[in-house]
Design a protein that fits this description.
about 140 residues, mainly alpha, 5 helices
């Protein structure tokens, strides 16, 4: 039996057969209306909650990425500033060593022997460093 034979309820009138079939379907499916609405509502609620969960996960991930980017940028900035400042510290160190070595009176008349020993150590380091220009005695 084919579908056309099943739907052909009234012989020689296919339109009347379709109308009768639809009427029987509405009559039989009407009591199933409330359970069908509940199924549709439940399915849509499940989909809605799934999308809410995904949205919340995306927001949390976005906050983590923003925080991580901030940390990376701050670290990179700190390293860049450190690279810029480090030569200045070396320059200041060289200037201080040069200036300390420029006081021979302190080395000769220094009250404590440790102080003169530290000064002579700094001067020997400054002399070994080729970037430090030591002052000459102008006597």
């Amino acid at each position: 039996m084919s579908l056309a034979e099943i739907l052909n309820i009234w012989p020689n009138s296919p339109v009347l057969s379709v109308i009768i079939a639809l009427s029987v379907a509405v009559f039989l499916l009407y009591p199933a209306r409330n359970p069908a609405h509940k199924v549709i509502y439940s399915l849509s609620r499940v989909i809605h909650n799934g999308f809410r969960l995904m949205a919340r996960s995306v927001l949390i991930a976005e906050k983590k990425v923003v925080e991580r980017n901030k940390e990376v940028l701050l670290t990179a900035g700190a390293k860049a500033v450190e690279r810029l400042i480090e030569p200045e510290f070396h320059h200041v160190d060289a200037v201080v060593k040069r200036d300390i070595c420029g006081y021979p009176a302190l080395q000769k008349d220094g009250g404590s022997s440790t102080f003169s020993h530290e000064l002579s150590f700094l001067c020997s380091e400054a002399e070994a460093d080729s970037s430090v220009i030591l002052p000459t005695n102008r006597s």
